[in-house]
Amino acid sequence: MLLCAVLACVGLGCGARAGAAAKSPPPDPLEYGDAVVEGHRILAEDPSGSGRVVEVLGDLDGAEHVAVVVPGAGQTRDNFRANPAEPGTVPLANGRALYAAMRDRASMRETAVVVWLGYLPPQGHSLELAGIVGARRGADALVRFTREVLPADAHVTLTCHSYGTAVCGLAAAHANVADDVVALACPGMGVTDGAAIRARVWTTRAPDDWIRWVPSVRAGPVGLGADPMDPGFGAVRFDPGDISGHTQYYRPGSAALAATSAIAVGERAAVASAGPKPR
């Protein structure tokens, strides 16, 4: 979807339509609270549009390490907890997999995961997939969330997938947002290089992930910026192991999830020393 939208924009020219999207009003800011609904600890929920949900796993207030899972395009309030057609994209399932891996790795430390669908990702084959407007709006909302809701003294890692990596890159270009950013299957982080991001940047991509064909370009509101897999970007690249395609990055037992969980609990040295395998 994203590849088709970017190529369509490059071939047809869609700056005007991207500009029109920028003029559409953003959603109202989420009102954060703390409620338990049918066994789920919900920090915010809004059914309007494709819907927004923010759910926490673990003791957020007492956490030493907090990971914020930021999903990508196509995610909605309706598929936040289940999507039989694409189980690897389900935000809550991915958050649970990361939380379990973090607890296994750091059983003596308090950890928490926030599954943050606090923005309205592009849907379907919309040309918004190739535009930066939605990512900027998501980034503004993510900055507010990390500063106002997360514990001030926690180690914060943004773990982001696909279009969500642009949201995270733009958000982490601001101070006091995150300590680490993990970009999984990134089409572009919304910035020109890693120096613009005020956090350590980590990235990986499956060798057969179609996202590698997305042009790493940015022209006005079109394109999602530089690819952190480019050695010149300045990110730490780590090996994804044996995962395949675009949606297996949170697969339990995978090298990609193990590395992401290690970063999220502050065990960066083990990941940095592993490095990507030649392909």
Quote the beta fraction: 15-25%
Low-confidence stretches: 3-20
Give the integer mean of the pLDDT values.
Answer: 90
Summing up helix and strand content along with how strands pair, one would put the structural category as alpha/beta
Along the chain, the helix and strand elements come as HHEEEEHEHEHEEEHH
The general outline is globular
Cα-atom radius of gyration: 17 Å
Terminal residue distance: 26 Å
Helix content: 25-40%
What composes the largest sheet?
Answer: 9 strands, mixed
Could you say what the CATH architecture is?
3-Layer(aba) Sandwich
Compose a concise summary of this entry.
It contains 7 helices and 9 strands. It has 279 residues and is of the alpha/beta class. Strands 1-2-3-5-4-6-7-8-9 form a 9-stranded mixed β-sheet, with helices on both faces.
Report on this structure.
The structure is a single chain. The chain is α/β, with parallel strands linked by helices and about 280 residues long. Helix content is about 30%, strand content about 20%. It is built from seven helices and nine strands, in the order ααββββαβαβαβββαα. β6, α5 (about 165-170) and β7 form a beta-alpha-beta unit. It is globular, with a radius of gyration of 17 Å. It starts with a helix and ends in a 5-residue tail after the last helix. Mean pLDDT is about 90; it is low at about 5-20.
Provide key terms for this protein.
279 residues; alpha/beta; Rossmann fold; nine-stranded mixed beta sheet; 7 helices; 9 strands; globular; disordered N terminus
